[in-house]
Fold this sequence. Notes:
Layout: E1 10-13, E2 16-19, H1 30-34, E3 37-39, E4 42-46, E5 52-54, H2 57-70, H3 79-92, E6 98-105, E7 119-126, E8 136-144, H4 161-173, E9 178-182, E10 188-191, E11 194-200, E12 203-206, H5 216-228, E13 232-234, H6 239-242, E14 247-252, E15 256-263, E16 266-267, H7 276-288
Parallel strand pairs: 8-9, 8-15, 12-13
Antiparallel strand pairs: 1-2, 1-7, 3-6, 4-5, 4-6, 6-7, 9-10, 10-11, 11-12, 11-14, 14-15, 15-16
Helix pairs in contact: 2-3
Amino acid sequence: MATYYNNETILFLNGEFVKAADAKMDFYSQSLHYGYSVFEGIRSYKTVKGETKIFKAVEHYERLKNSAAALNLPYLWTADELIAATYETLSRNNFQDAYIRPVVYAPANMSFVKNEQSFIVIEVWEMQPFLGDNLLRVMTSSFQRPNPKAFHIHAKAAGHYVNSLLASQEAKAKGYDEALLLDMNGYAAEAPGANLFYEKDGKLVTPSLGNILPGITRATVLELCAELGIEAEEKLFTLEELKTADAAFYCGTAAEVIGIKSVDAYEFPKPWNDTVSRKIQTAYKCRVTEKEYKQEPELV
Ligand code: PMP
């Protein structure tokens, strides 16, 4: 298991910077008992100029606010104050390339009624930019994504992640790197913690919103496509359609852009280095570190 903190680690807890080792939360919290909390997964990067930059900080804190609203959790903070607190937490821990995990959680409450109060913690741990292109071997999960009529699936709610853990653990137990989950109607949806794109004839396709988490990396990929003149489409598609694609990738804050080698027995035929997906992978790495992206001549 990874180590997330040591005796020196500082976290932000309800307005104060405290040692992670001394921080306390209530074991009677509704969040612990019912999976009733919302969170974000954010990254900061050391830019080419040597500064620490939180990538898409406003977008992440907006999504946190929307997630809290979807779950009726009081949300008492502004994006500005939380972004300032995040930079301060990074600086107190001397981190530049880091993963940032804010969690909004509930007070002690064993009933199902909503609360007047919420708490927030911001934890940071070191994470290097993901390097290399180890293509993933993916299996179609026996688990579907949660039914959007049972959950607000656009919210990044802790409870939804039981589904992600089950799917990912199943895939790994069967010798795969990661799972692919379908939605309740059998359309390709997403990975346990990342969004899906496929490439066909130089065009990118990604599942439309509705049954997936609206990923900030997914939105960034769509932005990059527009900037680079790569055609992109959001639509629902089946596993059968995915298995006719030239290439595919997952994308998410933690995963960044990571190519997929195969889904079940289907291997994507196009060499990764010849795909526009690979171009997006490189352009994404440049974007997060504020490096100018120069199109590679052999790919133009
Ligand atoms: N789908 C799920 C289920 C996720 O957990 C994540 C990671 N937050 C994503 C997609 C990708 O979202 P983002 O790009 O905002 O990290």
